[in-house]
Amino acid sequence: MPSLDTHCHLDDPRFVPDLGAVLERAAIAGVKDIVAPASEERRWPALYALAGRGGWPRVHPAFGVHPWFLREDDNPHSLTERLSCVLDAAGHRAVAVGEVGLDFWPGMPEHGVQERLLRAQLELAQARDLPVILHARRSEDRLAKCLRDYPGLRGVVHGFTGSEQQAERFVGLGLLLGVGGVVTRQSADRLRRVFAAVPVDRVLIESDAPDQAPSAHAGQRNEPAFMGETLAVLAKDRAMDALALAALLDDNARRLFRIDGGAP
To answer: In degrees rounded to 5, what are phi and psi of residue 138?
Structure first.
């Protein structure tokens, strides 16, 4: 079981009734650390408070504005100023800027508006030497083109479901690719081939909880404790020992987010 979940929305309202139990189950499963990205400004305070709770697993916050929660009249400069303030307040606890990105699904904000906000947040991450947690839906090619303007920027395209060519493009830009429960589904043969071909030092494992539950938990609220099923599929596709693969994926995550192994 991986000891670090690289993407879990612990601030989601669906976790409110039993968050303590969710974290306890994660710890029992061997999860020591959780990267918890905020997606919208109104959730930043709750995530900040959660990261200061202490105990295991440790919660490491990332702050950003997801394109889903962008309004057409939002001012990217003002949003980024407020994001900079919350990063100042979080200090060393903040491990990334995210979740940010582009979403070109029908009904999403206008592409240019999304890109202006994304670029403002990428500039902030680059200035602070923080990695970015990137969302991409029907926008992988445009996102890759945008990222070329930020050489040296570290980060992960989380929940990657693109093509092998798109994967190669992101890896060539120095990014990692995150994979979660979707890879366990019967319909995921193409995605499994993509991730089997990605260099292992460019892969991160994530729950993306409370969404994207592995197939054994289909229809349920997802949790970090379920990542073992995703790991088993990835290990099988690479003909690797699962524990050995988990150690490599943990190392990838800890290097990217600069999170030490800690105790216990």
So the answer is: 55, 30
Pairing type for strands 96-103 and 58-63 reads parallel
- Higher-pLDDT residue of 143 and 40 is 143
β-bridge pairing 4-5 and 58-63: unpaired
Q: How far is CA 9 from CA 98, 142, 219, in A?
A: 11, 25, 17
Give the span between the Cα atoms of 159 and 205, in whole angstroms.
9
List, for residues 93-102, the tens digit of each pLDDT value.
Answer: 999 999 999 9
Q: Tell me: pLDDT of 65 over 60.
A: yes
Q: How many CB atoms lie within 10 A of CB 208?
A: 25
Whether residue 23 has pLDDT greater than 60: yes
Distance CA 41, CA 79 (A): 8
Residue 264, pLDDT above cutoff 70: no
In the chain, the domains with their CATH numbers are 4-257 (3.20.20.140)
What is the rounded distance in angstroms from the CA atom of residue 123 to the CA atom of residue 181? Answer: 31
Reduced DSSP (H G I as helix, E B as strand, rest coil) percent helix, strand, coil of the chain, to 5: 50, 15, 35
d(CA 68, CA 160): 17
CA angle 28-29-35, nearest 5°?
100
Please report the pLDDT score of residue 39 as a whole number: 78
